[in-house]
Specification:
The chain has one helix at 33-42, and strands at 7-12, 18-22, 25-30, 58-60. The chain has 68 residues and is of the alpha+beta class.
């Protein structure tokens, strides 16, 4: 299996939300960094481990780290 980042933030939907998957599991739709950080905490990442701009941790699909 090819390597991929453990967290994928999918392209924005019409309402601006972005679906988030962690290790292949859908964890919800984030509408901003706070939502995304909460999903990652629930997935077991500690606050010190959450680096939303780290390309080894988070893959932003359909655009950069932005929220409409």
């Amino acid at each position: 299996m090819a390597w991929q980042t453990p967290i994928i933030v999918h392209p924005p939907a019409a309402d601006g939300g972005r679906r988030v998957t962690v290790r292949g599991q859908d964890v919800g739709v984030a509408h901003g960094d706070r939502d995304l950080e909460e999903f990652l905490r629930r997935a077991g990442l500690g606050e010190a481990d959450i680096a939303l701009d780290d390309p080894c941790l988070v893959e932003w699909r359909g655009g950069p780290h932005e929220w409409p």
